């Protein structure tokens, strides 16, 4: 049973430790949960900033509903970072509901997010709780841009892009969990929103994204479709939404695009256990170890949304730095609101819908993590 109001599940992972950094910064006590308490203790000693001033405990749990519900019990909010979420996420969502906790996580995996909405949205609402996937740089920054665009009257169509500085020397700079989720997308359909209906991107879809921040177009991919078409499907303001992701300074995206085509040709029809082995091999070969802490001079991002209507047109841009560190900040911004009982939505809802895009943007801006601009077109 948790002694503290916030649980960080996946505490030995890169993102989990960054969330703990921010909770410590805001003087919020927490319970760190993972499979191996010794590893958590070792990793926290190496990685978590200001740990000597923190109020916390470490608990072990298997990834089962019963075990997780037991350690979540007593907390108010679960921050879940254990992915790929399509494989492991619903267990934690069910456990948090059973324990009477709000649940927020860090993924944009469409099939998982749809499953959360369909299986747990009403149950969380009835329990007076929030379940909010994708409270993270991907795709809260793009959603903030989209909400800024929607402030222009008449906008009902959105196109968003998440453009990050890519990894150097293989996948250095991307976490093991993120890499596993990326390759897991090969097994899942990528969808966009068209006239209030989710439709699959054709196989092999790519985008050459043009943005005034860059001299050349940025080769981008649907990236599993992102969370935004799911979130805007039930928004009465939005008819259509398409999202994509690109690394703007190297050829990583083209390599991933080629791998997706190879998957369709060679691995798509293999038994699941064989596919699992292929994915694990890709993860091991591209992300052998936890990356170093991000640097503001290297990890930079540009997220934008173009909003259109019959006569309206607007471009909203959010410039950012250190996406993983920003994810820790966004999780903590959400925790603060939930602990104070200040949420605009219960049940299934995005971070912007639950807490307000202006609040999240202000939290980031005040800490030097983001800057937003809006241009009428």
Task: Tell me what you see in this structure.
By secondary structure, the chain is an alpha/beta fold. It has 2 domains: 6-136 and 324-362, NAD(P)-binding Rossmann-like Domain (Rossmann fold, 3-Layer(aba) Sandwich), CATH 3.40.50.720; 138-323, Dihydrodipicolinate Reductase, domain 2 (2-Layer Sandwich), CATH 3.30.360.10. Helix content is 41%, strand content 22%. It is built from 13 helices and 16 strands. The strands form 4 sheets. Strands 3-2-1-4-5-6-15 form a 7-stranded parallel sheet, sandwiched between helices. The chain has a 5-stranded mixed sheet with strand order 12-7-13-14-16. Helix 3 packs across helix 4. The model has no long low-confidence stretch (mean pLDDT 91).
Would you summarize the structure shown here?
Helix content is 41%, strand content 22%. The protein is built from 13 helices and 16 strands.
Features:
377 residues, alpha/beta, Rossmann fold, Dihydrodipicolinate Reductase, domain 2, 2 domains, 7-stranded parallel sheet, 5-stranded mixed sheet, globular
Give the helix tally: 13
By CATH, the topology of the largest domain is Dihydrodipicolinate Reductase, domain 2
Q: Span from first to last CA? A: 54 Å
Mean pLDDT: 91
Number of strands: 16
Q: What is the CATH C-level name of the largest domain?
A: Alpha Beta
Shape: globular
Main-sheet strand order equals: 3-2-1-4-5-6-15
What is the chain-wise order of helices and strands?
Answer: EHEHEHEHEHEHEHEEEEHEHHEEHEHHE
Amount of beta strand? 15-25%
The main β sheet shows up as: 7 strands, parallel
Low-confidence segments: none
So, the CATH homologous superfamily of the largest domain?
Dihydrodipicolinate Reductase, domain 2
Structural class comes to: alpha/beta
CATH architecture of the largest domain: 2-Layer Sandwich
* Number of separate domains: 2
Radius of gyration: 20 Å
Helical fraction: 40-55%
């Amino acid at each position: 049973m948790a002694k503290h109001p916030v649980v960080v599940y996946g505490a030995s992972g890169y993102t989990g430790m960054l969330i703990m950094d921010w909770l410590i910064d805001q003087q919020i006590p927490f319970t760190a949960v993972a499979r191996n308490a010794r590893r958590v203790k070792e990793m926290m000693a190496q990685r978590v900033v200001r740990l000597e001033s923190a109020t916390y405990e470490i608990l072990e749990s298997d990834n089962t509903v019963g075990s997780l519900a037991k350690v979540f019990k007593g907390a108010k909010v679960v921050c879940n970072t254990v992915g790929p979420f399509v494989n492991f996420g619903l267990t934690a969502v069910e456990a948090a509901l059973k324990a009477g906790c709000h649940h927020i996580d860090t993924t944009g995996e469409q099939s998982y997010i749809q499953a959360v909405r369909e299986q747990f949205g009403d149950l969380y609402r009835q329990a007076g709780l929030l379940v909010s996937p994708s409270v993270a740089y991907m795709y809260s920054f793009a959603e903030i841009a989209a909400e800024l665009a929607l402030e222009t009257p008449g906008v009902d169509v959105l196109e968003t892009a998440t453009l990050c500085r890519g990894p150097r020397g293989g996948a250095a700079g991307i976490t093991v969990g993120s890499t596993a989720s990326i390759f897991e997308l090969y097994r899942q359909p990528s969808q966009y929103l068209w006239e209030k209906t989710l439709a699959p991107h054709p196989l092999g879809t790519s985008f050459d994204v043009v943005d005034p921040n860059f001299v050349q177009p940025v080769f981008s991919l649907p990236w599993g479709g992102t969370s935004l078409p799911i979130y805007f499907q039930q928004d009465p303001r939005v008819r259509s939404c398409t999202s994509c992701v690109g690394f703007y300074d190297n050829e990583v995206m083209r390599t991933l695009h080629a791998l997706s085509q190879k998957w369709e040709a060679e691995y798509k029809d293999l038994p699941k256990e064989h596919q699992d082995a292929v994915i694990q091999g890709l993860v091991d070969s591209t992300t052998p170890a936890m990356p170093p802490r991000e640097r503001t001079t290297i990890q930079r991002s540009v997220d934008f949304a173009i909003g259109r209507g019959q006569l309206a047109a607007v471009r909203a841009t959010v410039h950012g730095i250190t996406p993983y560190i920003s994810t820790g900040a966004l999780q903590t911004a959400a925790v603060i609101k939930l602990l104070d009982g200040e949420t605009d939505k219960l049940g299934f809802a995005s971070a912007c819908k639950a807490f307000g895009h202006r609040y999240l943007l202000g939290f980031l801006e005040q800490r030097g993590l983001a800057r937003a601009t809006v241009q009428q077109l």
